[in-house]
Design brief:
- The protein is built from 12 helices and 2 strands; from the N terminus they run H-H-H-H-H-H-E-E-H-H-H-H-H-H.
- A hairpin with a 7-residue loop joins strand 1 (about 130) and strand 2 (about 140).
- By secondary structure, the chain is an all-alpha fold.
């Protein structure tokens, strides 16, 4: 049952990341998740120091603010650079991650943040950190948090699918019909930040970035439209979680690293198959 709980909780995170990752990949913002995943570390430490508690929702709120701040700062720097690209992202996330590491070093005891956990998470401890909701049965603390994030993502994408589609494929047309590109951009980034924070302790920054980028990038190769891309992305993400976790159990390796490796292998298989057997790539629209 412990294995099932781990797969369910990480699976919920994987679905949330896979859905939002499709919009990020199509908007060429995939590496922004890397910046957010690293920059929320100071937010997590500050939330611990202020609240003096491990309340997930307080940490979620404060660290999400840092994630949105990262997006604002990256955009602001990028617009003022003569040579645009990933430079602003690199500057922002390295600076904020360095600040976070210093805070962890200075206030490690008060903040209760482990630097190894930052990279690889605590996936195997999910079944042991429980909530006493039922008299005879406990559920992992990660389950309601992952479920909450999953529901938020599904509702947001379902209700805002049209404006998200517009700003993803044709910003000029979206502006011409009165859709605020900036508003929807930052709403999307806010949700990405929230999902990243919720995933941070469980799976670590390495797997968070991989879940946002690799399954959507894989589904992009074989999808003709956005809806199919999202469905394939969810499937590839869940398949990677299940295979990667059980392979790590069999061979005794890192679960997060195993999932990333499986994701990459699936990506390469799909890439080679599409190139050799179809000799063409689809273009999502």
């Amino acid at each position: 049952m412990q294995d099932i709980w781990i797969i369910i909780c990480v699976g919920l995170i994987s679905i949330s990341c896979s859905i939002l990752g499709c919009f990020l990949i199509l908007r060429k913002m995939g590496m922004l998740t890397d910046a957010i995943a690293h920059s929320i570390l100071p937010g997590i430490v500050i939330a611990y120091l202020i609240s003096e508690t491990k309340n997930n929702f307080i940490i979620l709120f404060v660290a999400t603010i840092f994630g949105v701040f990262t997006a604002f700062l990256t955009t602001w720097i990028n617009r003022r650079l003569p040579n645009r690209g990933d430079t602003a992202t690199g500057i922002t996330f390295t600076f904020l991650f360095a600040v976070g590491i210093i805070l962890v070093t200075l206030f490690a005891e008060q903040a209760d943040v482990d630097q190894e956990c930052v990279l690889f998470g605590e996936m195997l401890y999910i079944p042991f950190d429980t909530l006493d909701i039922f008299p005879t049965y406990d559920i992992p603390r990660a389950f309601p948090l992952g479920g909450f994030v999953f529901i938020c993502v599904v509702i947001f994408v379902k209700k805002a699918y049209r404006p998200l589609w517009m700003i993803t494929f044709d910003e000029s047309y979206a502006l011409s019909i009165g859709i605020s590109v900036s508003l929807w951009h930052y709403l999307l980034i806010s949700l990405v930040s929230m999902v990243t924070v919720a995933s941070f302790e469980l799976v670590g920054s390495v797997l968070v970035v991989a879940l946002f980028v690799i399954p959507p990038a894989t589904s992009y190769i074989i999808s003709k439209n956005l809806e199919k891309m999202i469905k394939w992305s969810i499937l590839f993400g869940l398949l990677s979680v299940v295979l990667g976790y059980y392979i790590s159990v069999i061979f005794g390796g890192s679960s997060a690293a195993s999932i990333v490796i499986i994701e990459t292998i699936i990506f390469l298989i799909v890439l080679v198959y599409s190139k050799i057997f179809t000799n063409n790539f689809y273009y999502v629209k």
